[in-house]
Amino acid sequence: MTAPIIGFIGAGNMATSLIGGLLQKNMKPERIIASDPKAEQGAALSKQFQIRTVTDNAVLAAECDVLLLAVKPQVMQAVCRALPAERKPGQLVISIAAGISCDSLAEWLGDTTPIVRCMPNTPSLRGQGVSGLFATAAVSEAQKELTETIFNAVGISVWLEEENLIDAVIAVSGSGPAYFFYMIEAMIDAGEKLGLPRDTAERMALFTALGAADMAVNSDVDVAELRRRVCSPGGTTEQAIKTFQAEGLPQMVDHAMQAAAKRAAEMSKELA
Ligand SMILES: NC(=O)C1=CN([C@@H]2O[C@H](COP(=O)(O)OP(=O)(O)OC[C@H]3O[C@@H](n4cnc5c(N)ncnc54)[C@H](OP(=O)(O)O)[C@@H]3O)[C@@H](O)[C@H]2O)C=CC1
Ligand SMILES: O=C(O)[C@@H]1CCC=N1
């Protein structure tokens, strides 16, 4: 089978991460098309990745085997309704939007449309993405395999049995990179306050995050044990962790992730 043509509707942050990740995994640039109403947005992507870009979404609907909807949730209904009813035969639609249900997408696109909802994240750009996937009944086994091929090329993917678990995936991994970036920002600020030059604090915080994640991913023991191994009895880390506990870090993380999932559920109702 020839490689599928993937069309990205919306050439923003997440489309850029996915396209960059796919090209790094040897996907041919001529198999990717992106559309964005702003010609300059498309031109920038075209220059960066040598892919074809257009300003008319209907071109993608006619030519692509996979139509990947990567616009903001607030414009998704208008974008879907404006697509021509006649699209490339056998086309699979994948939506990466937070808070847009498969029922809404089916209503806007036609209820026999094979639809996959996916929640990826921006580290897909580096082949380190995490994607939660949910398929409607209209999606064939071959289309599920194609979906896995796309998202496994840019990281790991997990199929979900229930669509509402996408909201949990948003809270964990979709929004998750921002939590770690925020933690790193705070560590850089604190390191500078302790006297390190800012660029030194930045390099140390970044490589510590990278080293810790890499070690945890490749470890035989769980993260709690890895944490304990850094905490020498009566030592320094113990004091830092006690401070995190006393100031309620686990509860704060829980509240933040509940808020993210709650917002996703609210959006599904507001934007239906
Ligand atoms: N950012 C992230 O980390 C993640 C985002 N997502 C989801 O991905 C989707 C995109 O997010 P993100 O990439 O951050 O958003 P961006 O705003 O960066 O990208 C969306 C792009 O779509 C363009 N656009 C607007 N209207 C149309 C249209 N009618 N046709 C084609 N393109 C259009 C926008 O142009 P303009 O700027 O001019 O409006 C913009 O370039 C969202 O639904 C979000 O929920 C999912 C996982 C992670
Ligand atoms: O913040 C958002 O709504 C999107 C979805 C997950 C990450 N970014």
Walk me through the topology.
Layout: E1 6-9, H1 13-24, E2 32-35, H2 39-49, E3 52-54, H3 57-63, E4 66-69, H4 73-82, E5 92-95, H5 102-109, E6 115-119, E7 129-135, H6 141-153, E8 155-159, H7 165-174, H8 176-193, H9 198-217, H10 223-230, H11 236-246, H12 249-270
Parallel strand pairs: 1-2, 1-4, 2-3, 4-5, 5-6, 7-8
Antiparallel strand pairs: 6-7
Helix pairs in contact: 7-12, 8-9
The site of (2S)-3,4-dihydro-2H-pyrrole-2-carboxylic acid has 4 residues, from helix 7.
EC number: 1.5.1.2
Catalytic activity: L-proline + NAD(+) = (S)-1-pyrroline-5-carboxylate + NADH + 2 H(+); L-proline + NADP(+) = (S)-1-pyrroline-5-carboxylate + NADPH + 2 H(+)
Protein name: Pyrroline-5-carboxylate reductase
Which descriptors would you attach to this protein?
272 residues; ProC C-terminal domain-like fold; eight-stranded mixed sheet; 12 helices; 13% strand; elongated; binds (2S)-3,4-dihydro-2H-pyrrole-2-carboxylic acid; P5CR_dimer; amino-acid biosynthesis; cytoplasm; NAD(P)-bd_dom_sf; oxidoreductase
Write out the distinct hetero groups bound to the structure: NADPH dihydro-nicotinamide-adenine-dinucleotide phosphate, (2S)-3,4-dihydro-2H-pyrrole-2-carboxylic acid
- Using DSSP, what is the number of strands? 8
CATH superfamily placement of the largest domain: NAD(P)-binding Rossmann-like Domain
CATH architectural type of the largest domain? 3-Layer(aba) Sandwich
Q: Which structural class matches the secondary elements? A: alpha/beta
Count of alpha/pi helices: 12
Q: Give the SSE string.
A: EHEHEHEHEHEEHEHHHHHH
N-to-C terminal Cα separation, in Å?
37 Å
Q: Low-confidence stretches at least 5 residues in length (pLDDT < 50)?
A: none
**CATH class wording of the largest domain:** Alpha Beta
- Approximate helicity band: 55-70%
Task: Give the overall average pLDDT.
Answer: 97
Seen as an oligomer or otherwise, the chain set is single chain
Protein name: Pyrroline-5-carboxylate reductase
Main location: cytoplasm
Domain Pyrroline-5-carboxylate reductase dimerisation: 163-267
Pfam families: F420_oxidored (PF03807), P5CR_dimer (PF14748)
